[in-house]
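agent: user wants the full assembly modeled, not chains individually. Plan: 1) parse entity lines 2) check alphabet per entity 3) run joint structure prediction 4) return tokens. Steps 1-2 passed, two entities, 750 residues total. Proceeding.
--- entities ---
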Amino acid sequence: MNSDPSPSPFSFDIQARCGNARAGIFHTPHGDLLTPIFAPVGTQATVKAITPAQLHEVGASLVLANTYHLYLRPGDELVAQLGGLHSFMSWPHPMLTDSGGYQVFSLADTRKIDEDGVTFKSHIDGSTHRLTPEKSIAIQQNLGADIIMAFDECAPPYDRSYNERAMARTHAWAERCLRAKTRSDQALFGIVQGGVFPDLRQASAEFIASLGFPGHAIGGLSVGETKPEMHAMLEVVNSLLPEDKPRYLMGVGTPEGLVNGVLRGIDIFDCVLPTRLARHNTAVTRLGKLNLVNAAYRQDESPIQPGCACYTCQNFSRAYLRHLVVAKEMLAATLLTVHNLYTLLELMRDLRQSILAGCVEDFATQFFAQKRVTS
Amino acid sequence: MNSDPSPSPFSFDIQARCGNARAGIFHTPHGDLLTPIFAPVGTQATVKAITPAQLHEVGASLVLANTYHLYLRPGDELVAQLGGLHSFMSWPHPMLTDSGGYQVFSLADTRKIDEDGVTFKSHIDGSTHRLTPEKSIAIQQNLGADIIMAFDECAPPYDRSYNERAMARTHAWAERCLRAKTRSDQALFGIVQGGVFPDLRQASAEFIASLGFPGHAIGGLSVGETKPEMHAMLEVVNSLLPEDKPRYLMGVGTPEGLVNGVLRGIDIFDCVLPTRLARHNTAVTRLGKLNLVNAAYRQDESPIQPGCACYTCQNFSRAYLRHLVVAKEMLAATLLTVHNLYTLLELMRDLRQSILAGCVEDFATQFFAQKRVTS
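--- prediction returned ---
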């Protein structure tokens, strides 16, 4: 096992365990992350529809930004020149960037993969670009997030031979990312791949764990597989990843997904879902979703979720939110984003408390029972 | 002179005069308005792109909403059922509604005017509706703003015979509005019309003043006439309107327009300009406008206006705002709305202070001199 050559400002203290769930503190140069934690997504250096002040107010502490988007616009060199992402977007708290890989591989028709990297066309102007492990790290170093990600390849979950090839590339690229990284104030996380194949997941977890990353991500899930398959993969991988380092499940952000992930030992999550649903008139609650365009809410004086302490629920009725949605007012997206993020962040705080109190299983049982009753 | 038959919770105290400018306090059921004052516009029961909390934070105290829009959607009866506008949109401070007249008369092709009122087609679904003075007051009573407006007709500024007819109708309708009003917790303002014709403005000011309204508005300005013409009309009208009642200039919201209006005795202004410009990538400052899409701002680390204390200028560079604009992020509209409203509201506070200090003429001289130097 190699270890990061430069002294690290990062460390992970586990405060309590409860089954496979863990409550911890991940120390970063921009503050402590109280895990388990959910990271809202600020693709283009803004969590859509809200200000950093509102993001702080809903309880966010870690924000994800997308390397692919920021590399193309405004450009990582400009962001570096302006003092890095934290300063650029006025978010003085911890940040995470992805590697750009996921977005590039999603450009199915306009990208070409080889062993060295990926050539692709910009979705903005069609210009040709190339990402390699070294280039991804260089961009992420310019952006300056606290947590940065290894450049990996996410394959379709059920294609075994593709997953074998993608995993091999992901492993080779992980080593190149480690060698390319020079900043000591960033923690580089390795990513486990392997689709829905337990043996591939096992091989990937073992290999990635052997490289000595300060944290590990589980990629290639929540991309079309079933929930039992996802849970099985989490169980395989988390039994092999080092206990004492944070584990990050990429792309999961439903209330039930968060509970299921925490029960299986996940410490960090991110997802565009709560913010994207907000911009599509949809409120998230622990019990299910509400589409505010529904005429049933026309005269409904109650808040989205009675008892919810978010700014939106404290001040606005479903009837008002429906009016904003029907009138196509921007405030609808803002207020729903505030509520949806608050809902997930409060759920994470409750999960953390229940781990510290030693009763996360009871909490989860109650959570799923309530959900069944109302759905 | 008649007087409002019911006991009124409204009163206007003038604290200081400086030339024709006045600093006062207009007491309303939802709080005191420190005049001169600028009212941001919340057409559909939301000041576009910001929350009421942000609106309060930039220093707004009076918000205007549009009767035409809210009558059509979500409907004034629904708003009344939900507790009125203040409660509906969560703005516990003073509010003002217009009469709906200006919007209806703007529907040039789909409205028909007679002596009793106006028949028009909805811009939303083409359905036919009718507004009369009595109907406008009934809607405004359902909406429940503190200040409501008489139903008037705004004619093109240079058409004398149209202005004569529109003025006669406006006067007849003002009397009908006074008779129709039943709520004692709303102040009904009369509106002076008369285009750019001093004799018509004089006749209108004298007639409207004779009806005993608790406040007066000057309509039909900022609709295509020149600035000297507007100033001449303000001087004619304000020399005739009672000194001891607030005067409201409708539709003016440039920094220079506010200064010029205050110097001529105006106490209240409203305008969509600062919020509309914000949604078109444009920042307002006392010295002029900045279009943030301009490539010159690409690497510009300075705030929109150095020294500005607004949330936007305290936290974000022009380079970041330009990025948001180019990337079509909603946050651009929010941050520019915050800045633009703050700029106008701070200017109003400074104008008020300079009236209280007896030096508004010096303030205005300096304001226009600085503007000339930089433009």
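agent: reporting back. Chain B touches chain A at residues 44-46, 48-54, 73-74, 78, 81-82, 88-90, 298-299, 301, 311, 315-317, 319-320, 322-324, 326-327, 329-331, 333-335 (CB under 8 Å). The first helix of chain B runs from residue 52 to 57.
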